[in-house]
From TrEMBL, chain A:
Residues 18-225 form the MacB-like periplasmic core domain. It holds the Pfam family MacB_PCD. Keywords: Cell membrane, Membrane, Transmembrane, Transmembrane helix. Residues 261-376 form the ABC3 transporter permease C-terminal domain. It is a multi-pass membrane protein. GO terms for cellular component: plasma membrane. The chain crosses the membrane at residues 20-43, 254-275, 311-330, 350-370. It comes from Candidatus Propionivibrio dominans. Its main location: membrane. This is ABC transporter permease. It is found in: Cell membrane.
Length: 385, 240
């Protein structure tokens, strides 16, 4: 098609200018994609949750514990299919910089509630049998080069002393949203240690994880559980696992709002740069557009040429930026290690990148196209020379 | 490309009556053309002469339908183009007018062939028909060996020949040329004038050409002199 040929040739007339504009687009679209992926990663904990799990915690706050004997009473609540519990351990592996979550859990019931952790049967058995054993996610194991059988020493910050675990298994997530950056070990080990020191919290747990039969009944079952412990010494607050995780995210909500805003500001900036380039380009070709109009081409033809050219540059840069986002995100995820358990460029992000590119191209062409379609032929022809 | 009022040479193609054009710049009112009457016969070759600023280009632009008069009528082939809407005027130009400019005004990103093909995109011709028309037009201006060249790979004279091919490829009734040799040396300018002569004699085109050069004007059948926006009688030869 003639028009396509003409606008493509126009687009690459000033190679350097077009190249620089495209580089700008690539950087902007890439930065936009990475920032959005960071936001997604922040929410990934909540996204990866199951709708058939509830979390029961102390109603006062997470720093208050719950008695172990609640487990039986929760298990008897109608609609509950399983109960497990966990304590935040907060140990340090070699140095403080090596942060990753560790939980003391009731192993058999916990693994039953987390079918998305795919653990070989033999490793699972070995873990359940070894009170000193631990299991970790694949990402964590890869980061520190751990193999099954390795000894992993953790320095306790909440619970004093050096705790050495034997790695008994490594789980793979069932999909990319599954957390592979945690460590689980036997709650009994923690409890016995506390008892030996005469600690009062030996028979207490951080939170209960509750499996339920029907996601739609989550509010009802939560109410039933909390009703059990109304007016007791430790009242409970039960919510879906998702709500529980979002509670953590909301603490950093302000940062996320800022990151989100910055991601769009970047697009607005490149839009201004691109619009300026297109206006400059259009002005230089004033006489050509006037000639086209003199020959009888309608204003719509000039509009088509400018929009086409702008879209070619914006989309060209945008698509390259999108493609570049993938390896960059992978490199970023590697560099920050297990800080973000899940760091994947989502389809939505890529769609947004594409939409942003098209919008930049269209908006950048709007003003020049409007101006050039309305130029006076005689005046325009004067610009030759 | 038939125009109302069919007939051979001798019939009036352009009839200009009481034409005026003025520019308003702020408080200033600048009259350029005032009460101008002019007839051009079908298949006539007219040279428009006059001092700089006398309004030659303005008159030519009005006749070609790329400018609007302040008053009066311009009837070309029975159509008063002063009354046409912008869109209708564009269609009218595409169908009836061929343009030749002093600085050629070719699209720099298109080859000679593509430049000549450009106005045919506004017709209903098929791709193959377009190619045939372009080849014929380039043959007419004797540029068949330069079809794949870009304007910046052509000399000024060659570029103007491409422009002439572009002007004749749609087979328009009227060809307007504003100082077509103004940017060329005498020899190349002469070649361009030869081509215009061919268009007039062989193809029977009506040509209105603005020029400063009495030699160039001498190639035309008739000279029209413009001075301060009004036509003046032909001065005796040599009195210019
Ligand atoms: N847009 C405009 N605004 C104001 N005045 C204009 C405008 N365009 C043309 N004029 C004036 O109209 C007059 C005629 O201009 P025109 O270009 O028709 O002259 P010309 O005879 O073609 O001259 P030249 O031989 O130098 O090309 C000039 O005085 C010019 O200043
Ligand atoms: Mg002039």
């Amino acid at each position: 098609m003639f028009v396509l040929k003409l606008l493509l040739k126009n687009a690459f007339r000033h190679r350097l200018r077009t190249l620089l504009t495209m580089v700008g687009m690539i950087v902007a679209v890439c930065a936009f994609g990475l920032l959005r992926t960071i936001i997604d990663a922040w929410y990934a904990g909540a996204e990866g949750t199951s709708s058939t799990r509830l979390v029961t915690r102390n109603a006062i706050s997470l720093t208050f514990v719950l008695p172990l004997n609640y487990a039986d009473r929760v298990r008897r609540v109608e609609g509950v299919t399983g109960v497990s519990w966990s304590n935040w351990f907060g140990g340090v592996y070699i140095t403080e910089r090596n942060f990753f979550p560790q939980f003391a859990v009731e192993p058999a019931s916990y693994l039953a509630l987390y079918p998305e952790y795919i653990l070989p049967e033999a490793e699972k058995k070995a873990f359940l049998l070894d009170r000193q054993g631990a299991v970790v996610g694949r990402k964590l194991a890869n980061q520190y080069g751990w193999k099954v059988g390795d000894q992993i020493p953790l320095r306790g910050t909440i619970f004093p002393g050096t705790w050495t675990f034997t790695l008994r298994g490594i789980w793979d997530g069932v999909d990319a949203r599954t957390d592979e950056a945690q460590m689980l070990f036997h709650w009994k080990l923690l409890s016995e240690n506390l008892r030996a020191r005469g600690g009062q919290n030996a028979d207490h747990v951080g939170v209960y994880i509750v499996g339920i039969d029907e996601p739609n009944n989550a509010p009802l079952i939560s109410q039933r559980i909390d009703a059990q412990f109304k007016n007791s010494l430790a009242e409970t607050l039960t919510e879906t696992e998702k709500a529980f995780q979002l509670g953590f995210v909301s603490m950093s909500e302000a940062i996320l709002v800022a990151v989100n805003a910055v991601s769009y500001v970047i697009i607005v900036i490149i839009m201004a740069v691109m619009a300026n380039t297109m206006m400059m380009t259009a002005r230089e070709r004033l006489a050509e557009y006037a000639t086209l109009k003199a020959l009888g081409f309608p204003p719509a033809f000039v509009v088509k040429l400018l929009f086409g050219e702008s879209l070619v540059i914006a989309l060209g840069g945008g698509i390259l930026g999108m493609l570049l986002t993938l390896p960059l995100a992978a490199a970023f995820a590697k560099a920050v290690g297990t800080l973000f358990p899940v760091f994947v460029v989502s389809d939505t992000t890529m769609l947004l990148q594409l939409a942003a590119s098209v919008t930049v191209g269209a908006i950048a062409a709007a003003w020049p196209a409007w101006k050039m379609s309305r130029i006076d032929i005689v005046n325009g022809l004067r610009h030759v020379g | 490309m038939s125009v109302a009022g069919d007939g051979g040479a001798g019939q009036t193609l352009i009839r200009i009556r009481n034409l005026s054009k003025a520019y308003v710049r702020g408080e200033q009112f600048i009259p350029v053309l005032q009460g101008l009457d002019l007839d051009v016969r079908r298949a006539e070759f007219v040279a428009l002469m006059g001092p700089s600023g006398s309004g030659k280009s303005t008159l030519l632009n009005l006749v070609a339908g790329i400018d609007k008069p302040s008053g009066g009528s311009i009837i070309v082939g029975g159509v008063d183009i002063a009354t046409l809407s912008e869109g209708a005027l564009a269609d009218w130009r595409a169908a009836h007018v061929g343009f030749i400019f002093q600085f050629y005004n070719l699209m720099p990103v298109l080859t000679a062939f593509e430049n000549v093909e450009l106005p045919l995109l506004l017709t209903t011709l098929s791709r193959r028909e377009r190619k045939a028309h372009v080849a014929a037009a380039l043959d007419m201006v004797r540029l068949t060996d330069r079809v794949d060249h870009y304007p910046n790979e052509l000399s000024g004279g060659q570029q103007q020949r491409v422009a002439i091919a572009r002007a004749l490829v749609t087979d328009p009734t009227l060809i307007v040329a504003d100082e077509p040799t103004g940017d060329l040396d005498r020899v190349t300018g002469g070649e361009v004038l030869d081509l215009l002569d061919d268009l007039h004699r062989q193809l029977g085109k009506t040509i209105v050409m603005v020029t400063h050069d009495p030699k160039a004007a001498g190639r035309a059948e008739r000279m029209v002199h413009l001075e301060k926006g009004v036509l003046v009688p032909d001065p005796a030869p040599g009195a210019v």
